[in-house]
Amino acid sequence: MTVVDSLIALIAVIGTLIVAFVVSVWLPGIERKFVQARIQQRIGPPISSPGLMAPIKFFFKQIINPNSPMPGLYNSLPIIGIIISILLLIIVMPQLYFLVAFASVVALVGLLKVEEILYMFMGSLSKSVLSIRMPFPDLVKGAKHRDVPRSFVEELSSMRAFRLIAFGSFPIYIAIFVPVAMAGSIFLNDIVAYQQLHGPVLFTLGGILGAIVFFVGFMILLNEYPFAILKTKADVIEGPLLEYASKYRAYVYISRGLLIFVLSSIFATLFLGLPPTILSWTILINIVVTLAFTIIMAIVSAFSPIFTYKQFYPVVAGVSILGVLAIIASFL
Amino acid sequence: MDEDNKITDETPKKQVIETEVPLGPVHSAAIEPYRVRLFVEDEIVKDAEITVGVNHRGIERIMEGLPVEKANSLTEKICGICSNIHIWNSVLVAEKALEIDVPERAQYIRIIMAELERLHSHLLYLAHGNEVLGHETFSMRLFYIRETVMELLRMVGGNRVQYGVPVIGGIRPRAELDQMKIQKIEDGINFLEEKLSNFAERFISDPMIMSRITGVGVIKKEDALRLAVSGPTLRATGVAVDLRRDMKEYDPFDFDVITQDDGDIKSNLLMRVLENFESIKIIRQAINHLPEGSITNRSWEMQDTPITKNYVEAPRGKLYHSYALNDGRVRHCIIRTPSITNIGAMEYACIGCHITDAQLAVVQCDPCFTCTDRAIQIIQL
Asked: Which residues are CB-contacts of A193 (< 8 A; sequence separation ≥ 6)?
């Protein structure tokens, strides 16, 4: 690789990251203003408010220490989330396919797993005032079961994050292996090259099934309704994110918007053969896929109640079976 | 544990309950402050304890010694949702004690207000239930439908929360209904009926919602009777008890007592939907046959009375007011709201639920802890 090539690659990476940031700050607004507010027959927030103005506002808020045994680590977790999202985006960019092993679906799966594990750490490290720490005299004479160990609501969401790692993420990982089965390679450059020769994976039976499975996995990974068991308002409230305030909450918002763009770009790379890069007009397709995913996700969320395990297990099992069928169809 | 698998004093507690998850009194799923301690094993609730007392205002104590008219007005402050039923019951106590006949037109307008308030309360219940269920779209749409009722209440009573319509001997002059107001009420309930039908149809046919609420938070009929449950929560278990059947004010009106059989969250939600249609039916009869004549009977005299009590069917169940009159002032005032008798059922309904369903199991009993907290006595230790 020459110096000029390296420079072009660097410009492509930086340019694509800027595009990703610019697009991702508008996604929460589109989701809430253009879709959910219209469905719910209300005005909704200004389009720039949830993704752009809210993080800016939080950056200028007073920094307060969270109720956490390790506040430093707890506050750094959203930043790690942003770094992982950036790494995921860099992996799928064609300028970095020379990193062979790093630019493979194994690396994608590994980084996505780290993203999931972050919620477990967040839940374990958050100790909000809304449960045990609430100064309320309930362990008084006549109270039931006074000697029982007490749990924070965040610990509950941490346990749920663990379950999500165990079974909730099956759909997205199965879906990722549909293009692998078709291309016969785990390397992203091979998957993209295969689709340039044979057309997008999406336009095959296995690809269609895989896309459905990927979308469900996408919603589970983003903890969106109806799969938002990590942050159910009825019990764990915001769950692992409960104690984030000021600029750290801004990082949480940025991280979520960026993850939507990144996961959509992974989909475009694996199922359409169009990796995100500022050097090609196909970046527009990546943006369209991101918008489509955001809009469909908002519609599904608006018409769903939140799931408990009773609904969650069968849905994940059913979708995973569909994913397996997609892989079988890919081999045929 | 004993033979019936119940917790006894001899049971080693740590073997019975794995973990406790305390929630509240500040919590996003609770529109009012209350503490619920959930005792869980693998996220399944094994036992629950609800504690209230955060919102005590001592209204009964303030009412003591006040002139009865002022005391009646004060009862409206007990609840922001069913304020009218409180003042109406308080006024009924005075009318019963002083043997005052109320003009028929005033009775009809009181009924219209009571049923509009029932609609507003049930719609709020449904909207909040859907919010806790996680279905924001239904919740928002129900709040949108409810606005029609709120506007009608504002038109008749002059306010959206405290209407002050019943007074001893009749109703306030500002609540008199002219032809324009009657037409607006008719248009409003027609709109409401159409929207509610659409909602009910979509709600019942949504498989995801049905999966969440069917067979969850069950209160059996015999347990409901044992726990002294009242109102729609009792009727949702299959017991056809509605105090409106015993109230002479409701004699001219034809309506059905709605019951459901299962006592689960679905039954409770559907109960309120179907009761809304009955309320619309009563309002329609009232405006179609509104008698002519006076709205106030002023020919009564204040006198000392013994403690007099009265029960009415509030939107949440049986509401009790009692007081005596001495020199035109209130003495020995006692008020019991439906939620205090339903707390036992709320705790019971949580048992066996997933922890996410526990708040919904509480909400299905339509708690109004702000009403209830009024009755709590705080002792300084």
From this structure: A183
